[in-house]
C-alpha cells in the first residue's frame, strides 16, 4: 500500500496567497491586463538584473519564444537538435517550416553531442538548437566554435536552465538567443510564461516587435508577427517569485544532495554526476537503471506508482520515435544509439523545495527493494 501523500516529479512552487491578492486588486483597478503594462516592465527589468543578462523579452510561453527566435533569425532548411527533450523543442521547428535533424547525445551530460552535430551537418543546415537538459549546461564553447566555423545560427532551448551559471556568468548569454520557460512545472514559474534572452539590443527590438504582431505604432506594422506577449498577472507573479527563488533553489539543492547520499547504497541505479563548474537550479533528479539491475526501468516506474510515487520517464519516448518525426533519415535508430539507450533506462524522481528527508528515505527504500519485490 502507498504511504503518505502522493509524490509527483514536479509540483509548482507558489508565493503566499496573501501576497498575490494585492496584485489582482491592482490589476482589477487599472484594467491594464496586457500590452506591456507596469508589471510587465518591472518584471522584465528585475529578471535581467537577477539573471545577469541585459536584453530580456518576456513571452507568453517558451514554445512561442522559440518560434520568435527562429523567425528573428529568418531560418530556412534544417536545424540540428536533440531527440532527447520535450517534444515542444522539435515542434517549434516543424511549425516554423524547418526540418529537425536529430543528432545523438553525450552519455554523461545527456546533452546534444557536438561531435554528433558535426557529423550531421549538411549544406541545408542553417542553425543548431541544443537543449540544456535538466538544467545542465551544454558544451557551449564547442557549439559556439561550430556555429562560427559553419556560419550557423545558435539558439538554445534553455527551458530548464533558469539561474544556471558557468565560470563566465549566466549560461543564457551564449548563442544568438536563449529561451526560458516559466511553465508551472519549472523551478521558476509564472503559471505560464517564458523569456527570450537576446545577445544585443537590436535582436531584442526584433523579438519585441514579433511578439506583438509586428506592430510598431497605431498605424505601422513592420512584418508578420504573432501574439506572444506575457500578460500582466503572470508578470506580477514573476516579480513575487523572484523574492523566493533563492530559498527554493537552496532547498532543492539540499534534496538533491540527500538523494545522492541515500542512493549511493543502491547499486541498481546510477545518479548523473554533478555538473562541473556550474551552479544554479536542480531542475529534476534523474537516475539511470543499470543494465544488470535485475529489473527494468518500467518495472521500477510501476512499483513507484503503486506506492504513490509519481516519477516520470523523461524523456521517453524519444522525439525521433514520434509519428510526425520517425520518417526522417536522422530519426533512424542506428543514428541515435546513446539517446535510445538512455531513454530506456532513465527515470526522474520527485524533487521540490518541500520534499523532506522522510519522504526521500521512503522513495529510496522502494527503489532498493524493487529487485526483491519482483522476484
TrEMBL record:
It comes from the Bacteria. CDD domains: AHBA_syn. GO terms for biological process: polysaccharide biosynthetic process. Pfam families: DegT_DnrJ_EryC1 (PF01041). The keyword Nucleus does not apply. Belongs to the DegT/DnrJ/EryC1 family. This is Aminotransferase. It comes from Neptunicoccus cionae.
